[in-house]
Amino acid sequence: MDWDAIQRYMRATGASHSEIQEEMADYADEHGFPIIGPDAGGVLRMLARLTDAETVFEFGSGYGYSASWFLAGGADEIVLTEIDEEELEMARSFLARAGYTDRASYELGDALETVESYDGPFDVVLIDHDKPRYAEGFERAREKIPEGGVVVADNMTRGPADLDALVAYFADDEPLPEDANDGTEGIANYIEHVRADPAFESFILPVGSGICLSTRVAPRER
Length: 222
Ligand SMILES: C[S@@+](CC[C@H](N)C(=O)[O-])C[C@H]1O[C@@H](n2cnc3c(N)ncnc32)[C@H](O)[C@@H]1O
Known about the structure:
By secondary structure, the chain is α/β, with parallel strands linked by helices. It has a single domain, classed as Vaccinia Virus protein VP39 (Rossmann fold, 3-Layer(aba) Sandwich), CATH 3.40.50. The protein has helices spanning 3-13, 19-31, 37-50, 65-72, 85-97, 111-114, 134-142, 163-171, 182-195; strands at residues 55-59, 77-82, 104-108, 124-127, 150-153, 200-205, 211-216. The chain has a 7-stranded mixed beta sheet, sandwiched between helices. Helix 3 (37-50) packs parallel to helix 4. It starts with a helix and ends in a 6-residue tail after the last strand. S-adenosylmethionine (SAM) binds at residues 34-36, 60-62, 65-66, 81-84, 87, 110-112, 128-130.
């Protein structure tokens, strides 16, 4: 069976959109906006349930689509971060219409700075902002993630990174091309970074644009 057929099979049997999520997904289609999509969304929803999430933190929330999945999974509170004011306002409006006003807070600005003003703990963190800064996002959130907490990073197999170059680098021990773009270098660096961290267990799940899941398996240092 080919990969397209598997994707269609997964989509036909995967998580379904609510009415508002359908509207959000239609907006993404119309404007070519890179949302995480319903298959990865189903994983976010499950992670919120499995961790009984009290607080979720997102690096790069767009207009709230990924946040809507965490909230659908029962997350008590989610911090949305965004550098684009218009997108953050759209998130506020979509999530209010979905009945989530009391459980979402909205932070305009650089997520890497915003995260410093939160103590955590974060039961789940989504990293979906600027690819070259993924590893920095992980580092800044790292000590705020309790044992059993999970970090999800999007775009491991699709997006700005060159998948062929990543496959050659990780599976065939070839160097990254000299002209590799920032996204490819950023994703390669992120994967190496989390895999080298002894406090986390990580793997890539090929749903949506490919998500890297890292769960803390050792106590925090402070
Ligand atoms: C792929 S989109 C996020 C999609 C969203 N997670 C979803 O699935 O619905 C990436 C977003 O990150 C935002 N962004 C990029 N760099 C950022 C930063 N340093 N801090 C906060 N947001 C950032 C962009 O404006 C963009 O809206």
